[in-house]
Amino acid sequence: MTSPNPDPDPRTTPGLEPGGGVSPGDTPPDSGQTSGLSHREPRPSRKMSIAWLVTVIVVVALIAGFFLTYLIVYLTGD
Predict the structure, then answer these.
(1) For 5-38, what is each residue's pLDDT tens digit?
(2) Confidence (pLDDT) at 30
(3) How far is CA 74 from CA 33, 62, 66, 69, in A?
(4) Interatomic CA distance for residues 10 and 20, integer angstroms
(5) How many domains does the chain have?
(6) Which of 26, 49, 60, 61 is the Cys-Cys partner for 22 at CB 3.0 to 4.6 Å?
(7) Where in this protein does the record put region Disordered (predicted)?
(8) Domain for residue 63, yes or no?
């Protein structure tokens, strides 16, 4: 089973010139809609965003700990 062509029939469409063109300043006819309403998009998972947030916090804490340890060792002169 084939679906009907969504484009308007040029023989019955007003405003078209011979050959299918439109007059200057005229708007060509629009094609019909080929799809209806789609299903709702699923919401993104919060688990992944929480995992990224925890990962960033851990990496920042490790970098801060490294620099804090380096500063303590530098200031104590060991």
Answers:
(1) 777 676 777 767 777 677 776 766 565 555 666 7
(2) 64
(3) 71, 18, 12, 8
(4) 6
(5) 1
(6) 26
(7) 1-45
(8) yes
In the block, tokens 């990224």 appear at 52
Establish if 51 belongs to a structural domain. yes
CB 29 within 8 A of CB 52: no
* pLDDT, mean over the chain: 79
List the domain range (segments joined by +) for residue 56.
Answer: 46-78
- Rounded CA-CA distance 66/26 in Å is 70
Q: What is the CA radius of gyration of the chain?
A: 33
Q: Is residue 77 part of a domain?
A: yes
Say if 41 falls within a structural domain: no
